[in-house]
Specification:
The complex is a heterodimer of chains A (172) and B (428).
Chain A lengths: L2 E3 L9 E3 L3 H31 L6 H28 L1 E4 L3 E6 L4 E7 L3 E7 L2 H5 L2 E8 L5 E8 H18 L4
Antiparallel strand pairs in A: 1-2, 3-4, 4-5, 6-7, 7-8
Helix pairs in contact in A: 1-2
Chain B lengths: L15 H21 L7 H24 L1 E5 L2 E6 L5 E6 L3 E8 L1 H5 L2 E8 L7 E7 H15 L12 E5 L2 H9 L2 H19 L1 H10 L1 H18 L3 E5 L2 E6 L4 E6 L4 E8 L8 E8 L17 E8 H11 L14 H4 L8 E4 L3 E6 L4 E7 L3 E8 L1 H5 L2 E8 L6 E7 H20 L1
Antiparallel strand pairs in B: 1-2, 2-3, 4-5, 4-10, 5-6, 7-8, 8-9, 9-10, 11-12, 11-16, 12-13, 14-15, 15-16, 17-18, 18-19
Classes of the chains: A alpha+beta (172), B alpha+beta (428).
Chain lengths: 172, 428
């Protein structure tokens, strides 16, 4: 839960909270797993070809594996930047969620407009003790979520948002 | 119907299953007519099968009528239905977004009408009472609307004030001058050339274009039926839009339920200075259902009209809608070359307006009380050009108000300002 004073969209100074550092580890593991699977597939195909009697083309095989490694590295770099770009800020009347590297998005969701809040944790997220909080408003297009929160922080945020939402609820 | 706390259970009109099955029945007759004509080799079993199907359809209709009942309980409308799986539906009247009285042609013959409630919320079920007698439907509508506002229905209601009546001639002209007609002409021209080059190919095209022709006719019919004799009136409980040639609808949009208003000015209508005005209401409209012509996503309160008429109507729907616009910086031309000429936006304390569109100009007004969330989005091209787009998300279904391609710093400031304005608008 690193905090830093980030670019303010209004005059007031805001504290932005970031997803847990464990999320970057999780993303790294995901990218690594994908690369390993891809490498295994390539090795398997080459192995089958050798077994079938084809001569082993060492340079091209090495080139292929190098390409996979490079793709994995680039993917990891991008994933890390994405993780660092996620941030949220609880203001007095609304929640700000910032995300995206290529396309940067900043959502403003008033507490009174939140209809319900989901806490989702998939198997990989659970293994890292993380959860995703997702806010829903009556508008289908306002999709705001915060991934990679420690589970207790996710529960705190959910309860906090639900309480604020109840206090400030506004009809359609 | 007098005491709202525990009205007795009501049943739908006994003729409901007949009307519900009406369209299916006609369809079945058309399908089976081919085999029923004399000379077709038809066995006795075939006739028996059809009779059984007919009996089963009518039987199911009768059962569904028997097990369906409804009543008003406090501030809810409760509908119970289903024989094997009992279904008890509760519709909180406070969440009514709009009420339609729909009268398909067949129902009009019997003097019946369907009451359709549009509810807020994504999981809204089918709140429809099909069918009631027309007078009863009107009475129930008045009652439900009054309850939804937390008042009791008044016997002496102030008369409606007619805001607009659509001339039929203009409606027909506007339907004919539209993109489908252009498509049709293009197809016809292609056909003509093909016929001139080789008559055999022309016959092949003609036989295959039957479906297109039927589609065209259906389209024209729906537009005509949807806008025929359209009137917009201001009643004490909201805006009332009536229209229809064979199937009529009377929709009531309670005041303050409009999520957004959109004005579309198609290219082909520009010589006449015409435009279309549509309102967006929250709640997913359920699709399908018998006798419901495929409803457009938005309710057209003015299928075709002059700009003055549209703005006059807009003034009644959203009082003090802003008109002054500011243009995006000229470097936005690089980001949106085909849209730039229409891009603009403006706002005041209560409402924001945005204009966009490539060929047709689309103007959207969003009351700030209805803004659900705001988003500031900046893509890679926009970053290079120091531009950003603000999206105003509403609970409506089709209007996507976006303040496109503004200067990034200005957009940041506007995001803060719009957030503050919509907050105070919500509190007011």
């Amino acid at each position: 839960m690193a905090t830093d004073p980030a670019p303010a969209i209004t005059e007031t100074v805001e504290t932005w909270l970031h997803p847990s550092p464990r999320l970057s580890t999780m993303r790294r593991v995901e990218v690594l797993a994908a690369s390993v699977v891809a490498a295994l597939v390539v090795l398997g195909v080459i192995g089958l070809q050798v077994l079938a009697g084809a001569p082993l083309n060492l340079p091209s095989a090495a080139l292929l594996l190098a390409a996979i490694a490079l793709a994995g590295l680039l993917g990891d770099r991008f994933a890390q930047r994405r993780v660092r770009a996620w941030a949220y800020c609880e203001r007095q009347d609304d929640l700000l969620v910032r995300r995206g590297v290529m396309i940067s998005r900043l959502s403003v969701i008033p507490y009174g407009r939140m209809q319900f809040i989901d806490v989702i944790a998939g198997p990989i997220e659970r293994a890292f003790g993380l959860a995703t909080v997702r806010m829903h408003t009556a508008a289908a297009s306002s999709d705001a979520r915060i991934p990679g929160l420690p589970q207790e922080e996710a529960a705190r945020l959910r309860d906090h948002l639900a309480r604020l939402g109840e206090a400030r609820a506004a009809g359609l | 119907m007098d005491n709202p706390e525990g009205t007795p259970w009501h049943r739908l009109h006994p003729l409901s299953p007949v009307i519900r099955a009406g369209r299916v029945f006609i369809g079945a007759v058309i399908i089976f007519a081919g085999t029923l004509t004399p000379g077709s080799h038809d066995s006795r079993t075939g006739v028996v099968t059809r009779l059984v199907i007919g009996v089963v359809v009518i039987g199911f209709g009768a059962i569904s009528w028997l097990v369906t009942r409804w009543r008003v309980e406090g501030n809810d409308l409760r509908i119970e239905t289903g024989l094997i799986r009992r279904n008890s539906l509760r519709f909180p009247l406070a969440q009514i977004q709009a009420i339609d009285v729909v009268r398909p042609a067949l129902a009009r013959v019997f003097g019946l009408a369907e009451l359709r409630l549009r509810m807020g919320g994504a999981t809204a079920g089918h709140a429809r009472l099909a069918y009631l007698t027309a007078a009863h439907a009107e009475a129930v509508r008045g009652q439900l609307l009054a309850l939804s506002r937390g008042t009791t229905p008044q016997a002496d209601q102030p008369a409606e004030r007619l805001l607009l009546a659509l001339p039929t001639g203009r409606l027909i002209a506007s339907i004919l001058i539209g993109s489908p007609t252009v498509t049709f002409i293009v197809l016809g021209a292609a056909f003509g050339t093909a016929a001139a080059l080789s008559p055999r190919a022309a016959i092949a095209i003609l036989s295959s274009s039957g479906a297109i022709l039927i589609g065209m006719v259906t389209f024209f019919w729906r537009r005509l039926n949807g806008g025929y004799k359209l009137t917009v009136a201001e009643a004490h409980d909201g805006l009332r839009v009536r229209s229809g040639l064979l199937d009529t609808t009377a929709e009531t949009i309670p005041s303050g339920r409009v999520q957004a208003v959109r004005m579309v000015e198609p290219l082909l209508w520009r010589p006449f200075g015409w435009c279309r005005l549509e309102v967006d209401v929250a709640g997913r409209q359920h699709r399908g259902g018998e006798n419901s012509p495929e409803r457009q996503q938005l309710r057209e309160v003015l299928p075709v009209g002059t700009r003055e008429e549209a703005l006059r109507l807009l003034g009644r729907i959203l009082p003090d809608a802003p008109l002054e616009r500011s243009r995006p910086p000229s470097r936005a031309r690089w980001k949106a070359p085909f849209r730039y000429h229409y891009l603009s936006w403006g706002h005041n304390e209560r409402c924001a307006v945005t204009t966009t569109g490539r060929v047709a100009r689309v103007t959207s007004w969003v009351p700030l009380t209805k803004v659900q969330s705001l988003r500031l989005v900046q893509g890679p091209v926009q970053r290079r050009l120091r531009l950003a787009t603000i999206y105003l998300d509403t609970a409506g279904r089709a209007v996507h108000a976006a303040i496109r391609d503004r200067d990034a710093d200005e957009a940041r400031g506007q995001l803060g300002e719009l957030t503050a304005l919509s907050r105070s608008a919500r509190r007011a």
